[in-house]
């Protein structure tokens, strides 16, 4: 059987994307989105399971008698931002916006779903994973905790993410580390407050915090190999209320990113060690409040080669560009890749506004290519 095409369905797919863009919902609150997506999938003959991670969906389509299976994931949630695009289809939910293109990711996977529903020739099972809460609560892990791969086993799993600045429709990825882990530490320094005119009677947490911030600048440069990308950022330093009062406490918000699990653990251990020693040298105390985030996104080499081969064969060799370095941002598809081998791939959004900006919009011109990428992956895997 010849490959399905999206030509006749593409206008409707664009309309679907615009409808999703109008109804952005924050993580674990994607009620309207979930209902809309599930209705479409059911109308195309998929077996739809709802309720994983509250609003998540798994849509299953089986052909033939093979036990082989493949999974594709799209994130559905939006960001708490006020849209400023002025588009005819801009957000109808004040304070929420699809500023990361998850409306487009969902639409591309829906396009693949439609194409697969028109195809009787593949042999095996396709699981389409529509995931909530990528931006905030780690919806990928929540779906796994709800039995995602126990209930819907996949031999490999793939995801696409649009990327502004990369030529529209160009794909890019790499084997191994694709994106960094993220962990956040709220560090509280406990000193002894007093009058600004009598600092000798105090333990000044502002001085302790300042010394600690400077000490952390060597955490990466003198503890981690330059061949292992990692970043430590003190993004917030809060203390005090007036110029003549030495406060009792100071609060630091610190983020840590690494592309290697061993380095991630090393950063966590060393930041505590440095903070304790710095505090002790000033007779202060410290406490740690960890928000352990997403692990590094590690692509499977064979899955990357599968993706590259499909892209080159179906869209031309020029459609694939090897990603030279891992991204230092983070992505909760990493949780899925810890369970099942797969690949996280970028697709160029062209010369658009950046992700997480109020004027960003997903490029409709890449909908067909993204959808057909998933379709061809399924066809090539399930033969």
Automatic annotation (TrEMBL):
GO molecular function, one term: metal ion binding
Binding-site positions, Mn(2+): 100, 102, 135, 161, 356
The Peptidase M20 dimerisation domain, residue ranges: 186-276
Source organism, top-level taxon: Bacteria
Keywords per UniProt: Hydrolase, Manganese, Metal-binding
Biological process according to GO: diaminopimelate biosynthetic process
A Pfam family hit: Peptidase_M20
Listed Gene3D superfamilies: 3.30.70.360, Zn peptidases (3.40.630.10)
Cofactor: Mn(2+)
Cofactor binding annotation: The Mn(2+) ion enhances activity.
This protein's name: Amidohydrolase
Species annotation: Ensifer oleiphilus
